[in-house]
Amino acid sequence: MPPKRKSNISINIEDVGMEVDASDSGSEVEARRKAKNRRAKPQRKAKRVSDDDDEDEEEEDEDQSPRKRGRKKKAKPRDSEDDEDEEEDNRNVKRKSSKASRKKAKDESDEESEDEREKKKKGASKKDKEESNKEKGKGKGKQGKDVGAEKDKKKKKNRKLSSSFEEEEEEEEKSDEESLSEGEMAALKEEVEEKKKLIATLRNKPWRMKRRLTLLKEAQDFVEKFEGALGKGKGRKLFAFKVMMAKKLIKFKRDFENFKTACIPWERKIKDVESHFGSSVASYFIFLRWMYGLNMVLLGLMFGLVVVPEVLMGLPYGSIPRKTVPREEQATAMDYSVLSDFEGYFKYSILFYGYYNNERQIGLLKFRLPLSYLLVGVGIFGYSLMVVIRTMARNANEGGDGGDEGDFTFSWKMFTSWDYLIGNSETADNKYASITTSFKESIVDEQMNQKDENIHLRRFLRVLANVLILLCLGGSGYLIYYVVKRSQVFANMNKDDLTWMEKNEVEFVMSLLGLVCPPLFEAIAELEDYHPRIALKWQLGRIFALFLGNLYTFLFALFDEVNAKLESEKDIKNATILALHEYAANYSSFYNTTVVPPQNVHPADVIRGPCWETAVGKEFVKLTVSDIQVTYLTILVGDFLRAVIVRFLNYCWCWDLEAGFPSYGEFDISGNVLGLIFNQGMIWMGAFYAPGLVGLNILRLLSSMYFQCWAVMCTNVPHERVFKASGSNNFYMGLLLLVLFLSLLPVVYTIMTLSPSFDCGPFSGQEKMYDVVMETIDQDLPAFIGNIFLYATNPGLIMPAVLLMVLALYYLNAVSKGYQQANIDLKKKMQMARDEEKNRRNNKDSTNQVMKDLEDLLPNKSLIPPAAEEEPPPPDVVVDKGSRSPKVKPGAAGKGVHLQRDVSLAAPNPRDPVTRDLGPRRGPPGNAMGPQPGPGKGRGGGRGGGRGGGRGRGGPPRP
Amino acid sequence: MGSKSSSLNKIPNAQELMQETGFSAAHILRLYERFEFLDVDQMGELRPEDFGAIRELSMNPIGDRIISAFFSPGKETVDFASFVRILAHFRSTETNRTRDGAQPEPANSRTRKLKFAFQLYDQDRDGKISREELLQVLRTMMEMQVTEEQLQSIAERAIQEADLDQDDAISFDEFRKSMEKVDIDHKMSIRFLS
């Protein structure tokens, strides 16, 4: 299909032409302009400084350029009616100026013979090109059109009625029927020719090497890009192919980005929630998702290295005592009540520590399960610490680049927040909601910013609130302490003498505190009147402190239990050994032999110890499960039932339930976040004793994601003061880190100090759990590594290491402080630069305005005296200006406004205010230090002082 | 005009339009196709109802304003030339190129784009967005749960932010200043027109 291919090529070329043009034409045109300037300057006013090759000069050249552009524009008579604004679009101006410069070049053709020749050549070549081009273009156009028609028909058939812009887009991507217009082709050719010429003559130009090099590079790039487009045969095809690949690549990248977004789990759900409830509620769900990710890795570690190997390669259930349910429990081992307590089959399952065998190596792979168990248990902490800290660091980095976005918050939201591609009504609803929410968030922020009240009262109230809350916390702490003490006394008494109240006192008090304190704190926090975002942090911190008491009692009870178990275990161990000895003695005396065969007892009947590790693991699992139950029940009853009642009872109730007392629930961010964090603490602590807990937790997080999303969307209402969450939820992370550290302590303590049970778990038979590592070092690793370990654990080595770390910490801290300072300074500088820029622009604007208005007012259309003194303007330009200025005014009303404004601005703006301000900074006046210019180069006086003021950036266009 | 023509010859004043708006031939063709598609009764002119077929516009809170921007005041219909001229505002800026024909500022310049957007808000065409006009937009953009008071305060703040000359309204200059850092060239360009 030759015609099709041709059209294909042509469209590609065109596209590229556009892109490249967009990127290149600016610089190219500028270069040309500069060249023109250079040539033209000597003819101009003596005061105008020709831009020499000095760096600073170039900068100034930039500053002058608007003026030059303006002048060139004015030189052209056919400015249209649309030319309403004095500040033209840059690109447009450039195009115009290039045109103008070309024209001017022709006018000035008598200035340099070389130039003249060039021009002629160019003209001739252009004509040639155009002619040939036209022919080509026609042929191609026809073919392209034919193909296009065919395609169109096909497309029409396919098109549905509801075709949208997006579909259009896609079709556009597919369509191949574009063709280059002759004019564009010609223009391109011309540019390429020009570039080539530039390359050829660059050697002769009186420019600096640096500039020559950059120009050369630009030109070469340009030629390379477009020669392919305009050439014939092979080069052209290759070029088309390249372009096609580039387009495909871009499309692929876009698709890949979309795919990546689609791969983020629950992104849509969270966005839904965010649009209705604000970023604060969404931050909880994002945290939940993050937690899910973390736990997935923990699950992988735990199951991949411990659980699955044991299942696949370890001994099966029922083979040894620790893997068998004891005889007396077997009758009830499958009862629901037993199972729900994690007794029975659950207790002797893969879920818990006790099930794992202490065989050093299992299976074909000789997998060292006990070692792996210990390393995974510790590795979970290591990985979690690493991830949490890394995330915190990354979040902290993200925080800083806010800049000064707060300038036009409301205007931007109002004018630009709608997404014009939304064509789906559901999406549109979400967008409405999110716009509303974001406005509300901004309102809250704004209110906080504008508040100015009695600061002393506020401080007093804040101190008061903190005192109150400290009292509350202290009181509840003491209460917990007291209750725990009492429970220890009760524990020593006979269980039958105790009432129910006495037995469950600790739990009762704990849940009461958990119920009463958070609302109390919230009420007290009202006094402080913080921004809700900060208030949430305080609330989180306070409830966290309260929950620490919870943790304390829990651990306290646990250690009591462990100690008791250890005692009884010792007895049982001794009794077993004694029995074994007795059996051996009896056997040897009876059969009169020293070879005692092992006792043949069914594994279910073997006497066994209490196995405190499994008991601890069971506690954690039970706690987690009950936590899940409580959370879900609270949601069902507290939110869902409430919502149902409020919704349906409202039809037949005395007052408005929806607006009045019960209303719908709000999403409790602090409670949920803390629940999540403490739950994770339980997982960390419990995972060592109950490997199955990690899996359970994954299920919990997964279900809670869906369940809570649903509950929020259908039963809760947004907060009264929706507030924007801080971009990074580092506060959550900080709390999590603290909990991680706290949960690390007991686990490490038990690993390092308590001796493992003698008859259950991977470490049975060892004195301490970490002996597994020692054993491995001794037996499986070369001797020198053992020596290294020996040295490494020497206190003489550890102390210096700690010292070194402290020093490093100090040093890094100092460095980071330094960076912080530098950052602040830079920010200040940027702000200053921005302000300066703004000032300059504004001043130019206003000065222009003043000038124009004055021109309007003055009958003889002359400029104000100071300007005239400096540079008497030639009359033609002034006339142009005068004829142009009426167009600048949009209407009578606008004029009135401007006049008013100008009156106020006119006084402080005597022509060049900014330049004068900047004068001293740009260098000492009188050019004391600046490079001395050679007068032959047409560079007038110095740059500083009065001269600088004369040709400031702010001034209106002057010739 | 019954048959689907895709040649430029069938389109009235195609060359002039290309000159004027900067669209390439392919763009014009494409737009013409689209125009014919929207033009249900094949009159060669579009009525406001025809734009309703575009779901993006019917979903848009200020969709009817955008539609009405296509119609010059007092006219009930829009012909292809004006249709293209309006759409030229949305041409991507990056594709501007040096052309031989002398031209005024193209419709897709930043200023013109802003002007177009500005006029969507400035309903009474007095060159200023008044507080009332802002409130109208806000009401269409927000859900029901926002109180009138909040709307007032939003409008108040928006005007405060942008208003430089204290006339309690946003003039075009002020509008442009407030949008200075918004990437209008990107936001107000339709990709298939680039």
From TrEMBL, chain B:
Xref: Pfam families: EF-hand_7
Cellular component, GO annotation? cytoplasm; nucleus; plasma membrane
Q: Which Gene3D superfamilies does the UniProt record give?
A: EF-hand (1.10.238.10)
Q: Does the keyword Kinase apply?
A: no
Q: Which InterPro entries match?
A: Calcineurin_B_homologous, EF-hand-dom_pair, EF_Hand_1_Ca_BS, EF_hand_dom
GO-annotated molecular function? calcium ion binding
Q: Which residues form the EF-hand domain?
A: 109-144, 150-185
What SUPFAM superfamilies does this protein's entry cite?
Answer: EF-hand
What is its subcellular localisation? Cell membrane; Cytoplasm; Nucleus
SMART domains according to UniProt: EFh (SM00054)
Q: Which domain of life is it from?
A: Eukaryota
Any one biological process term the GO annotation gives: protein transport
**Alphabetic keyword roster:** Calcium, Cell membrane, Cytoplasm, Lipoprotein, Membrane, Metal-binding, Myristate, Nucleus, Phosphoprotein, Protein transport, Repeat, Transport
- Main location class: membrane
Protein family per UniProt: Belongs to the calcineurin regulatory subunit family. CHP subfamily.
The protein's name is EF-hand domain-containing protein
Q: Which organism is it from?
A: Perca fluviatilis (European perch)
